[in-house]
Amino acid sequence: MRHFALLALLLPGLAQAQGLDMTRGGPVDVTAEDGIEWRQQEQLVIARGNARAVRDGVTIEADRLIARYRPRAAPAGAAPAAAAPAARTGDPTSGASEIWRFEAEGNVRIHTATDRANGDRAVYDIDQAVMVLTGRDLWLTATDNRVTARDTLEYWPQRRMAVARGGAVVDAPENRRIRGDTLVAFFLEEGAAGAPPRPTPTPPTPGTPGQPQTGRIERVEAYGNVEVRTMVEVVRGDRAVYSPVTSLARVLGNVRITRGENQLNGNEAIVNLATGVARLVSTPGARVQGLIVPQTEDAATPPGGTPPPGGARPPANQARPPERRP
After folding, report:
1. Which phi and psi (to 5°) does residue 289 adopt?
2. Whether residue 172 sits in one domain with residue 119
3. What is the DSSP letter of 129?
């Protein structure tokens, strides 16, 4: 196992976000089984074979990791100074350099103690504060919600936002599901008003950095071919907004509520994913339509032809036989 410590400090002043956030300053601990290559002229470090990079409780694992670095800029307003030898040679292990981009290839896994992301390839742009996952089996989990996508999965830690593109799905507990061409999930900042209480995390091992956590999902915005599923109904529309905090989803545009063979059509619907109840909301100048398929099965005779308790009842127009007297 090869070990390499990158003391690449980032520019000061970046916001302290939570979750899968690699944008905070601090050293990066890099390990790999098949070796670590330092290309000084190209200003990059390549780790191969079960490679791992750890910064402040966030871990990136992949078959190959690339860390791109550059000389750290002087603070604004500071007097120019002579470049240190480490800065002139581009030594990534000195405080004179900063990492501006991570690239992970093959079996990519990014995780903290509570949050995880997965894909075939990841690019983490420190300057733009965004991670982009591509490839197969794209997913991101935060607390009890799971976001999946077919094309790309973006995570913006400074904006507390994730964007899933292409067949995007958010799975919530109790078989609640939101689907759309594009989903945007916004995370509730820890400690903000209305944020649900979080269980007390396990204390970190002495000498190890703290483990940041993503806030719970505050709301999800869905665009294009939207589908909201409950235990008994499917609600489709053009766009939707879902709040896991209230379990309510508002679906807009060409709304269809389907339950079995019954369907209601309108322009807006409110879906309670906790109770499974969906209702159409009337809008000025728009009509609400519905197709209700009546139950054709004879309620008096249960399935299988078993007569009701007490025996079969004669038709109403059939005369009763006379009572026999002793």
Report:
1. -120, 155
2. no
3. T
